[in-house]
Structure formats: C-alpha cells, structure tokens
Design brief:
The chain has a single domain, classed as Alpha-Beta Complex (Spore Coat Polysaccharide Biosynthesis Protein SpsA, Chain A), CATH 3.90.550.10. It is 31% helix and 22% strand. The chain contains ten helices and eleven strands. Helix 3 packs across helix 7. The longest helix is centred in the first third of the chain and has 11 residues. It is globular and about 55 Å long.
C-alpha cells in the first residue's frame, strides 16, 4: 500500500503565529516533525502549507513541500489538496500534526498497520488516561470505543459517566481513553470527508471527527502508550525545550 504522510503547517495562528518555524533545540518545529515522520513506514512525507516562509524553511532542510490554499477550514481539507497535488497513486494518507514535534515513528506505524486492513476507512490513536486531572480537562478530548476498537463517540467531557462512584475513583473503576489527534484515511474516503457539511455534534463539541461519525463513517483506533506533546502556545514551547529527541 502506498501511503503518504502529510504535515499540515499554517503560519497564521491566533495563539502562536509562525508556530511551525518556532525553534526547538536548534531546529524549526516543522523540521522536527518531518524528521520523525521520515523514520516511519511511509512511502513519502510532504509538508502542506499556505505560506512561503514555511515552504522556504522546508526546502532549506531538503524536505518535500506543496503549496495549498489559505482558506482550508481544517487540516483534513489541506491533506486532501496535498494528496491531489503531490504526485499520484496514493492509497492512503496520514495527517501528522505539525505542532507535535515529539510524535514517535512507531505511533505513525500503528496507523500504517491499521490502514492495511480492508475494513478500515479512518484510523486514529488513543491513549489510556491515568490522571483524574486529565480526565477532567475539557481541552483533552476523550473517546469511548467498542469491542472491535472502533470509536463510538468523542467528547470534551469525561465519558463514560461512572454512575454511583466519586469522580476521583473513576479511573480506578474503568479504562478511560484520550484522543491523540493524528489521522489516517483511505484516499477515497478522504476525498468524501471534505464534501461533508458541518454537523450538529461537531459544532456542539468543536470536534471535527464527530462529523464523520454522524455521517456513518467508522473510525478505527489504535492504542499507544507513548505521550505526545502539542505546542499550542509560546509557554508550551518553553516546556518542550526540556525534552530530548
């Protein structure tokens, strides 16, 4: 199977303009993500951007880059355009978040393996929640999965609700999962996803993947034990400097 890794990278950001070019231990963040992705089992990796400054940075370290429209509502749409513009013959695409410089190649490979299955339309990662504080955090999307590993629902709330138990005891009584925002899509499915209109659940939770579930698409999950670190603000960048590659 021919799988393309796409790293969407926008310059504009409300909380952190120019984020892909932020320096982490001597290298731009987009380069850190690219180098991690290159160690995964992907046919090729390309950065999809709407900004020449990011494109120039990628070219400077020898990376592949494709220019995409500035008005995409999501990384999924940017990935679809990148797939259409960057060469041809792709069987699947993995959307690798451009603000997670510590993404591990084996995490990407979990999705590569999922996409090999004929029954998988969309794949994503989940990780067990071990801290009550994280279970409570509305900025950490939670997911419930069925016996086959398919996502039933995503929410910013703590789900499932553990009736009759004190909240502090929930993670001792049930296995809770948080969502890791990396996606794999079969190529034909990706194109169909970009044609869907926003859904009621998506708007309510501000979670794009709910649009796919509402429209009948199945999201298969793979479990990772490794943590990822998203850089959303300059403060996050300072914290990230202490980690080692």
């Amino acid at each position: 199977m021919k799988i393309l890794g796409v790293i969407p990278a926008r310059y504009a950001s409300t909380r952190f303009p120019g984020k892909p070019l932020a320096i982490i231990n001597g290298k731009p963040m987009v380069q850190r993500v690219y180098e991690q992705a290159m160690n995964a089992n992907l046919a090729e990796v390309v950065v999809a951007t709407d900004d020449e400054r990011i494109a120039d940075a990628v070219k400077s370290f020898g990376g592949n880059v494709v220019m995409t429209a500035a008005n995409h509502p999501s990384g999924t749409d940017r990935c679809a355009e990148a797939m259409a513009k960057y060469k041809s013959g792709w069987d699947a695409v993995i959307n690798i978040q451009g603000d997670e410089p510590y993404i591990q190649p084996n995490q990407i490979n979990i999705l590569v393996n999922l996409l090999q299955r004929k029954d998988v339309e969309i794949g994503t990662l989940v990780k067990c929640i071990s801290q009550t504080e994280e279970l409570l955090n509305v900025n950490t999307p939670k997911v419930v999965i069925d016996a086959l590993g398919n996502a039933l629902y995503f929410s910013r709330q703590s789900i499932p609700y553990k009736k009759g138990e004190e909240f502090a005891e929930w993670i001792k009584q049930h296995t809770y999962f948080k969502h890791i925002g990396i996606y794999g899509y079969k190529a034909d499915v990706l194109l169909k996803l970009t044609q869907l209109k926003q859904s009621a659940l998506e708007v309510a939770e501000s979670l794009e993947q709910l649009r796919w579930l509402e429209n009948g698409y199945r999201i298969s999950t793979g479990i990772t034990a490794e943590e990822t670190i998203a850089i959303d603000t300059p403060d996050d960048l300072l914290k990230a400097q202490s980690f080692e590659f």
